[in-house]
User: Fold this.
Amino acid sequence: MNDSDPLEIIKKMNGVVDAFYLDSLILKRIGEEERTVRAVGSIDVINEGFNRALKREKVICIIKDPRFRPPPEPTVKLMSDDGEVMGVEVFPETSKEFSSRDDVVWLSDNFVVFPGILPDKRSKEIFVMPPVPFPELNESNGCKDVVSCSPAPTCDKMIREWHGLKDNSKLASVLVAFNRINR
Assistant:
C-alpha cells in the first residue's frame, strides 16, 4: 500500500466508514436494478454517472457518513428529454445563490425547479444523475477518466448486503470509477 493507491486515498478521507472495490457480479446486479428505478409520478431516472462508471476498469464503493465532503456539483437534475434543465439539486453552500431569486420554486430544502423553463409539449421529464468529478483521484495518483455517482437507494442496500454490512440510514454510498494510467 502506498500514498498513490486509490483505495487507500479514499479510506483516509474524512467521513469514510468503509471503502472497497466492486466486482463484475455485483456491478451487473445493481446495473439491472438501476434500469428499473422510477421517481415519484413514474418519472424515469437515468443514472448517467453509474452508466459511465460501468465503462471504467475499477469501481470503488465508499460507505460514508455525514462528515464526508459534499459533491463538487449537483448529483440530480430534472431535465426534459430534449435537454432542457428544469430543476437542480441545491447544497447548503449554494442555497444563497437561489434564495433571492424569484424565478425558482423550492420543491424541498435541497431542490429547486425553474418554472419558466417549459419543455416542448412532445418532451417528457426525466431525473438525470450525472457523473460527478472526484478530484481526490487524478493523474498524479495514476487515475484517469474518473467519475463518481450515487447509486439508487435500492442499489445502495444491495451493495451493503453483498459486502455484509447492516442497513444504517445515517450512512450512504458513493461509487468512484476510474481507469488506471499505465506507467
Q: What stands out?
A: Strands lie at 16-21, 44-46, 58-64, 77-80, 85-89, 105-108, 111-113, 125-128, 143-149, 172-180. The two ends are 17 Å apart (CA to CA). The first helix runs from residue 6 to 11.
